[in-house]
Amino acid sequence: MALRVRTITADEHLAFLATSPASFLQTPAWGEVKREWRAESVGWFDEANADELLGAGLVLYRRLPKMRRSLAYLPEGPAIDWSDPDLGRWLTPLAEHATKQGAFGIRMGPPVVTRRWSTPVIKAALATGDTTRLGDVPPTEEGKTGQEVVEQLRTLGWRAPAERAGGFAAGQPRYVFQLPLKNRDEADILAGMNQLWRRNIKKAAKSGVEVRQGTPEDLPAFHALYVETARRDHFTPRPLAYFQLMLRSLLAEDPDRIHLYLAYHEGDLVAATTWVKVNGHVWYSYGASSTAKRDVRGSNAIQWRMISDALEHGADVYDLRGITDTLDDSDPHVGLIQFKLGTGGEAIEYVGEWDLPISKLLYGAFDLYMRRRGG
């Protein structure tokens, strides 16, 4: 069955995503959020049945400075049959379509798992201190499809992250931490958390921390706390206008696509987060917390509220998003995985982002440009 790729409407795209697992970064609304890119929804069709949509993706085009050619980027996508033993049927027409759109190269992040590590396995590795990288720890489970996808991509001429020789700056995280929710209730999830998490959730409640859903009018308060977090944790914050656009675009697409949460203690905002949902998958996407009053455990309270709401919405997965693969006690990033481990979930490795150079000359020039500007 030969396939072809063509532009589809946002409505066609959303109709497909309603029945297919996909990242929120692959929704039409996300194309509206990333206004510095040109967005296009694309679909895969059987040449013998032009009306049946078999796959879909959001493509973001970023133009090379002073040139008319662009990088085509599909963050955490596309949504196609990654188990197909002949991925060339899907990826070759994508490359042909992107070339016609003026792309000099494609970057994508297949939503395909390669390995999983349970909390007990990671805790054991941290306790012994013999391994400093998660990737060196024997996994709880290996994804057969993930290994096959990697082999096919290499055969088809795609370049893995490690093969970019410094390559573009990191895009979406390769390692994430997820809490499975399917066939579970609050009592079961609490029982799976470590003692510190359970104690902190109880302490927040006893201290009078109140968590509520916010509205777009609460974004300035969220953003002020987010900027405080950025200063404390040494990262560059996004402007308030970005979050206003994000809420407006995602809510217009689906009133349950995104929620804003705020945790207060005696009138003081102590934590704030955003929660995003597509079908059975919920993501914790942005978070902020105050330096003051950390002892009331607002961060644990707000996480527990988001997990509870994910359960109420019938989600199968609560995704705490990115972690690094470090298990080194001397690395400050290890605190991130230690915090998320407390939920009793699992670390997930995806196949990562892959590049296909269409014009090797322009691809190399853009690669150099991105490295010089730091991404």
TrEMBL record:
Keywords: Acyltransferase, Cell shape, Cell wall biogenesis/degradation, Peptidoglycan synthesis, Transferase
Pfam (any one): FemAB
PROSITE patterns tied to this protein: FEMABX
Source superkingdom: Bacteria
Record flagged with keyword Transcription regulation: no
Family designation: Belongs to the FemABX family.
Protein name: Lipid II:glycine glycyltransferase FemX
Native organism: Tenggerimyces flavus
